[in-house]
TrEMBL record:
Catalytic function, reaction form: Random hydrolysis of (1->6)-alpha-D-mannosidic linkages in unbranched (1->6)-mannans
Record-given protein name: Mannan endo-1,6-alpha-mannosidase
GO terms, biological process: carbohydrate catabolic process; fungal-type cell wall biogenesis
EC code(s) of this entry: 3.2.1.101
PANTHER family: MANNAN ENDO-1,6-ALPHA-MANNOSIDASE (PTHR12145:SF37), MANNAN ENDO-1,6-ALPHA-MANNOSIDASE DCW1 (PTHR12145)
Entry keyword set: Glycoprotein, Glycosidase, Hydrolase, Membrane, Signal, Transmembrane, Transmembrane helix
Species for this entry: Penicillium malachiteum
Amino acid sequence: MHFPGPWRVLKGLLITLLFTDSVHAITLDITDEQSIKDAASTTAYAMMTYYHGNETGHIPGAFPDKWWEGAALFLALLHYWHFTGDTTYNSELRVGLEWQAGDDDYLPANYSSWIGNDDQMFWGLAAITAAEFEFADASNVGSGYSWLSLAQGVYNYQTSEWDTSTCDGGLRWQIWTYESGYDMKNSISNGGLFQLSARLARYTDDSSYADWAQKIWDWSASSPLLDNSTWNVADSTETTNDCSTQGDDQWSYNYGTYLMGAAYMYNYTNGSSTWLTAVDGLLNRTLEGFIHDGTYILEEKLCEPSEVCNDNEILFKGLVSNWLSLTALLVPSTYDTILPYLQGSAKAAALSCTGHNNNTCGVRWYQSDYDGWIGMEEEISATSIFVANMIAFNQSAPVTANTGGNSTSVPDAGENDTSGDSSSLSAITTGDRAGAGILTVVFVAGWVGLMSWTVLGG
Ligand SMILES: *[C@@H]1O[C@H](CO)[C@@H](O)[C@H](O)[C@H]1NC(C)=O
Ligand SMILES: *[C@@H]1O[C@H](CO)[C@@H](O)[C@H](O)[C@H]1NC(C)=O
Ligand SMILES: *[C@@H]1O[C@H](CO)[C@@H](O)[C@H](O)[C@H]1NC(C)=O
Ligand SMILES: *[C@@H]1O[C@H](CO)[C@@H](O)[C@H](O)[C@H]1NC(C)=O
Ligand SMILES: *[C@@H]1O[C@H](CO)[C@@H](O)[C@H](O)[C@H]1NC(C)=O
Ligand SMILES: *[C@@H]1O[C@H](CO)[C@@H](O)[C@H](O)[C@H]1NC(C)=O
Ligand SMILES: *[C@@H]1O[C@H](CO)[C@@H](O)[C@H](O)[C@H]1NC(C)=O
Ligand SMILES: *[C@@H]1O[C@H](CO)[C@@H](O)[C@H](O)[C@H]1NC(C)=O
Ligand SMILES: *[C@@H]1O[C@H](CO)[C@@H](O)[C@H](O)[C@H]1NC(C)=O
Ligand SMILES: *[C@@H]1O[C@H](CO)[C@@H](O)[C@H](O)[C@H]1NC(C)=O
């Protein structure tokens, strides 16, 4: 084509723009397996630039100011390796998952005085994922706990904390009385332990884990957290009024964790219709509540439009991406419903990865352009949504002990841990570490907000 006079300039500009774009965008063809692997490889590399645990002078798996995010990073790496076959980061993964193990229960002494139940639980979920993906046990690394025993250790610890002194049951958000969230029972802690129990039941085929999953589910449904007819999942409820009120902030990972647990229970029970109803109901609300209007793109609606998502919240879509992909495999009837949302989200996420001339990904996928945000969390979530799309090419589902899983079972794992005894802890104030855990629900209830401000200010 011939461009006359003034068009020349424009043509030059257009070519520059097109060229720049093709160099610095992640080009993702959702129908092409290699293209998805390449996109995931780019963002996995980027997220690992924030990880220094394998370098001299650094501690494996440690993110001192946001300890739980190590679990989020390793969960993304486990999915990445399992579905793409790329082993590049497996040694960091193995060493980091072991190093933070504590006494086989993910309550390492450096952090145990302020770890919340949800923080510990995410490490437990990473461990059971490692077992289910047949990541070889690390008997030759550090303390060498098996992945299954680490999940069992977290389960043993958290079920022992089940609190019937208020609300007829439930797990508190925080472990220690001096933490400001101690008076709360929330969905991510209870839904997290529900999911962990369901996964242990399926992996081991030991019905005692399923009994606990059922018990946590029933308690949740009897509380304001989970509504088993509308499938609303609230964020939190309070022990100070015996769980009579609801902090109803809507976060995708609260839905995602109950959905994932229900999917495991469905699969574990060989297709129970009760669990299928729960899966369908929760999946429907997840897709109704966290998809950008008129699209198939995941959106954390409470914080994305106003750009106030904190680091925790930026990770929620990534966790939900992982859990949607496993739901599609464990409950095959949901596959056709889920896939278009994984595809729509991944295409948009790829378009958001055009930052800084080096494929930096943003937060708001629905914008389909870089939105200026930068961080490990953005890269983890982008990696997770790319990898989730691998289920179109590799339907390798989580295994069980009966289908190839060989992680060593230690039913009483973690029970030798004495650091879990609060009396042996030095008094570290909440204020010292208030930024360290998952703090998304702090401001839900007025008095808790006030209390934390007092502590932080004092
Ligand atoms: C991309 O560039 C930004 C800005 O210079 C930098 O902070 C970031 O670390 C870079 N990312 C990668 C993966 O190199
Ligand atoms: C740490 O791991 C990264 C990959 O994530 C690798 O590039 C780097 O060389 C490793 N550093 C050391 C000291 O092993
Ligand atoms: C699918 O993934 C599994 C687990 O990572 C791997 O063993 C298998 O080789 C993969 N299959 C294909 C066809 O890529
Ligand atoms: C705890 O801190 C010590 C001293 O910094 C360090 O050597 C150790 O690796 C840390 N352990 C964990 C689990 O982070
Ligand atoms: C368990 O399975 C993993 C993955 O297939 C394998 O690497 C490992 O050697 C196995 N361990 C034992 C004790 O069989
Ligand atoms: C829903 O939860 C309520 C309250 O726990 C319970 O009584 C009822 O049986 C549950 N319904 C179903 C279908 O599970
Ligand atoms: C599911 O089916 C398998 C194979 O028939 C059986 O071994 C297992 O006990 C069943 N699980 C449940 C919870 O009924
Ligand atoms: C359980 O998950 C496996 C693996 O994806 C699948 O083949 C099987 O059909 C599922 N079970 C049921 C009852 O749907
Ligand atoms: C959720 O369920 C409602 C009622 O059955 C249905 O109209 C809607 O399309 C479903 N939404 C999604 C995203 O599947
Ligand atoms: C607890 O410690 C004893 C003594 O060291 C050991 O024999 C036992 O295997 C440990 N139990 C667990 C569950 O780690």
